[in-house]
Amino acid sequence: MIDETSPALKVALAHHRAWTAKDLDLAMSYLADAFVCDAPAGRLGSRDAYREFLTPFSRMLISSTLIAGFGDQEQALIMYDTTTPLVASGPGAECLTVRDGLITYSRFLFDRLPFEQARQARA
Fold it and tell me: Taking CA 30 as the corner, what is the angle to CA 25 and CA 33, rounded to the nearest 5 degrees?
């Protein structure tokens, strides 16, 4: 279920659509100057660090399917599945804080196991 009446969810979905369409300039325009992301690999303390983190994955992304999205005035939670050359299914989720129409914080989680198994199989 996706209720796009939530202001935070609208921003979260616009950001998601931009980076999954490989338009990282547009995706970055939804992030506040003081953006911070906590990801499985650690804290990304700036927009530039986040872009550096996201760019390789965005480039290899084949598709992304939105599973669910929920939000209110300042928080949104989206869950999606991704397909890449490495894995047919790489689920992820983001809990985003939005203030003044920009994402200030992302708690990003994804299932690392399919990627690790694919890397081991290739080795």
Answer: 95
Q: At residue 63, what is the residue type?
A: S
d(Cα 100, Cα 123) in Å, to the nearest integer? Answer: 46
Contact 48, 57 (CB under 8 A): no
The secondary element (H helix, E strand) that includes residue 34 is: strand 31-39
User: Mean pLDDT across the stretch 15-42?
Assistant: 96
The structure's pTM equals 0.90
Write b or e for each residue in 4-13: b if 16 or more Cβ atoms lie within 10 A of its Cβ, otherwise e: eebebbbbbb
Q: Which CATH number fits domain 7-122: 3.10.450.50, 2.60.40.1120, 1.10.1790.10, 3.30.1330.10?
A: 3.10.450.50
Note the helical H segments in the chain.
7-20, 24-28, 47-60, 113-122
